[in-house]
Amino acid sequence: MSAYYDLLEKPDIRRTGEQQPLYAHFVAKGTIDRKEFIDRVHLFTGISRSVLEGAMAAFMDELRDCLANGWTVELGELGYFTPSLSCRRRAMEKDEVRAASVALRGLNFRLGKKFHEDLSGKMRLERRPQPAVPLSSDNLSSMERRFQLLDEYLQRNPCINRAQYARLTGRSYKQAVNDLNQFIRDGVLVRYGMGRNVVYAGKKVKSFL
Fold first, then answer.
1. Do 1 and 149 contact (CB within 8 A), yes or no?
2. 42-60: per-residue pLDDT in tens?
3. What is the C-alpha to C-alpha distance for residues 11 and 13, in angstroms, rounded to an integer?
């Protein structure tokens, strides 16, 4: 799977009226929320969801406390987190500013070199397709490509779950559920089980394509 980018014209800050150069803009396919992220790590590692939930909560609590106590925190090869501050009042002299006027603005993140190299080596970029229909709706071509991936997977495996389909196609949790429900309506999939035990199996009907 690829990551998408688009090319946008830089703003004409100086108001010259001249055409500005283009810059590359990352185009997200959606947002992977906490639950889906944990599902993906669980699927890849086999570590129980409860352990992963507890570990993530412990990481966030300790990260918060360390930052609150004035430390820069390194999270392995991922990178470094440092608090970012702002003054609530305009001042020209240091003596004009008291601690009560200084507040947390956010966090600065500096990406680790090794993680950057690994991410850069793994990422495959392609320009975002320009479909004839609005981007918010699935076009038939993209559904066909995802069905081909699904069909190839089910030829090697008896069934697939939602997390496996999302990983296979690069879809988000909600997008994966929508796709699988659409395939059921089209008569190419059958759903079995309930709750987290739901799986999907192929149905012997005419090809979707």
1. no
2. 888 889 989 999 999 999 9
3. 6
